[in-house]
């Protein structure tokens, strides 16, 4: 097996066009630049179509067409654009990553408190490796064209459950302290986080409280042939 490496930024349509020539399949991993995502995704889809790529898979987000998450609109736009592109494709709607909680481990270890504005909302997260294995399975097996897969973990965890997972790992009780979004922003700003970032985190939490990430679907575990990774196992891996 031979491999060809090519470098192209999502914003560089010309470089993308050259990079995708001759490929049979493309995995479009959603951009991290919120507010610029759709334009970047459109560049990749257009380049794939122009290069004659037969198939493209795209990593979207849970319940993208109905979610209140601030991350959802650009995913909806991308899904719609991909559907109209004429490309054979699969949409992989990834839930939250367990790894998103790792940055909180030092503070929670010190305080014994998990603070969030997520209310009683639940999150059906999985490990990045789980989502990667699911995407690899879709790309290397047939029968996935024109399908939308909801990729989630095997269980939806409340923030009390998440606090308990932290407690299992650090060896002490951890409690969940739900707060209002405005109070979370104020606390984060006081801790040195810029106001824009703090406000964004609070809006994400609010969408979780509204059920944006609570869907549990067996598709990911079925495709990868094993249970999805637990939050405890991810926290213990660092």
Word description of this protein:
By secondary structure, the protein is of the alpha/beta class. It has a domain at 98-126 and 154-215 and 229-238: UDP-galactose 4-epimerase, domain 1. Helices cover 44% and strands 15% of the residues. Strands 1-2-3-6 form a four-stranded parallel beta sheet, sandwiched between helices. The protein has a two-stranded parallel ribbon with strand order 4-8. Helix 2 (37-50) links the parallel strand 1 (25-28) and strand 2 (55-61). Helix 1 (13-20) packs across helix 2 (37-50), helix 2 (37-50) packs parallel to helix 3 and helix 7 (181-190) runs antiparallel to helix 8. It starts with 12 loop residues before the first helix and ends with a helix.
- Look up the CATH topology of the domain at 98-126 and 154-215 and 229-238: UDP-galactose 4-epimerase, domain 1
Provide the structure class.
alpha/beta
CATH superfamily of the domain at 98-126 and 154-215 and 229-238: UDP-galactose 4-epimerase, domain 1
Low-pLDDT windows of residues = none
- Output the radius of gyration: 19 Å
Number of alpha- plus pi-helical segments: 10
How would you sum up the global shape? globular
**What portion of residues is helical?**
40-55%
Approximate strand percentage: 5-15%
Order of helices and strands: HEHEHEHEEHEEHEHHHH
Return the average pLDDT rounded to an integer.
Answer: 96
Q: First CA to last CA: what distance?
A: 34 Å
Please state the second-level CATH architecture of the domain at 98-126 and 154-215 and 229-238: Alpha-Beta Complex
Kindly state the number of beta strands: 8
Largest sheet: 4 strands, parallel
CATH class value of the domain at 98-126 and 154-215 and 229-238? Alpha Beta
């Amino acid at each position: 097996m031979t491999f060809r490496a090519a470098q192209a930024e999502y914003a560089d349509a010309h470089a993308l066009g050259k990079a995708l020539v001759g490929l049979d399949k493309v995995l479009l991993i959603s951009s991290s630049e919120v507010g610029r995502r759709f334009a970047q995704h459109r560049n990749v889809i257009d380049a794939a179509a122009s290069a004659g790529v037969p198939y493209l898979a795209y990593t979207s987000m849970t319940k993208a067409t109905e979610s209140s998450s601030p991350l959802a609109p650009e995913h909806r736009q991308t899904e719609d654009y991909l559907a109209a592109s004429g490309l054979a494709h699969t949409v992989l709607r990834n839930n939250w990553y367990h790894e998103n909680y790792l940055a909180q481990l030092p503070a929670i270890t010190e305080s014994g408190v998990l603070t969030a504005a997520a209310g009683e909302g639940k999150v059906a997260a999985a490990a990045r490796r789980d989502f990667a294995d699911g995407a690899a399975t879709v790309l290397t097996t047939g029968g996935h064209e024109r399908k939308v897969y909801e990729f989630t973990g095997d269980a939806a965890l409340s923030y009390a459950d998440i606090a308990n997972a932290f407690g299992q790992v650090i060896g002490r009780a951890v409690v969940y302290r739900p707060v209002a979004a405005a109070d979370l922003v104020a606390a984060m700003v006081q801790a040195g986080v810029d106001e824009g970032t703090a406000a964004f985190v609070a809006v994400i939490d609010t969408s979780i409280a509204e059920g944006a990430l609570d869907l549990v679907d067996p598709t990911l575990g079925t495709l990868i042939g094993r249970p999805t990774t637990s939050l405890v196992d991810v926290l213990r891996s660092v």
